[in-house]
Amino acid sequence: MPTIAVSVLWLWILNPDLGLLNALPGQIGLPHIPWLTSETLDRPTLILISLWNLGPMMIIFLRLRFRMCRSSSMTPYRWTVAARGRGCE
User: Fold this and answer.
1) Are 83 and 66 contacting, i.e. CB atoms less than 8 angstroms apart?
2) Which residues, other chains included, contact 62 with Cβ-Cβ below 8 Å and sequence gap of 6+?
3) Given this model, what pLDDT does residue 70 score?
4) What is the distance between the alpha carbons of residues 86 and 89, in angstroms, rounded to a whole number?
5) Which residues in 38-63 are b (16+ Cβ under 10 Å) and which e?
6) CA neighbours within 13 Å on the CB side: how many for 44?
7) Is the pLDDT of residue 20 over 70?
8) DSSP codes, 43-87
9) The model scores a pTM over 0.85
């Protein structure tokens, strides 16, 4: 997704008045959480947003790691040797 679209989406999700993350606490009577304007929550929120951006690439990396660590007859011999050299069983 383009960066601007994702930024607008996150601003909508984290909106302290109408955001999706404040909808549930608002339903049960808890106060709204200022995700981006609070001095204690702004950095953790931005860290989680940046980690969310890495999600699809991390899934690819973990899948490749799983394939290299899997020992079956379907994997090529050189991958099995390389995986065992990296400590995979």
Assistant:
1) no
2) none
3) 56
4) 9
5) eeeeeeebeeebeeeeeeeeeeeeee
6) 6
7) yes
8) HHHHHHHHHHHHHHHHHHHHHHHHHHH---TTS-HHHHHHHHHTT
9) no
Orientation angle between helical segments 20-27 and 3-13, nearest 10 degrees: 10
- The sign of the CA dihedral 52, 58, 59, 62 is negative
Tokens for 16? Answer: 């302290």
pLDDT tens, position by position, 39-86: 898 898 888 888 877 777 777 777 776 666 655 555 566 666 676 666
Compute the CA torsion angle 20, 22, 25, 31 (nearest 10 deg): -170
Instruction: Please report, as a single letter, which amino acid is at residue 54.
Output: L
